[in-house]
Amino acid sequence: MTVSAARTTSENTVEGLAGYVTARDAAGLKLDSGGPTPIDLSVGPDAKVLRDGRAATSADLRPGDVVRAAVRAGADGGRVALQIWAHSAPIPALAAAPQPSQAQRPQARRPEPLRR
Length: 116
Description:
42% strand; 13% helix; disordered N terminus; CATH 2.40.50.140; elongated
């Protein structure tokens, strides 16, 4: 297999990607999928975007939106979205959920002593 054949194969491979939008600019989106570094995602000119089940554009996506995307490698090796499904559930609300109080947390118990 030649290098150009390998490049063509990888450019035609479609993969799934999920995370939430941390930033949006003219170049595309930055996603956090739980890894150590954010993911840069360009949005293709023919990309189909749905937000909350309705047709949208990449400009309609906001930081905090939860997204799933079908992506492929672009000519420069970056990720290009072919289709994006977004949900506008606010991620900060998840972080602000009430934490269990100290009394509600399970406590470690000391094992009972062995009886002889």
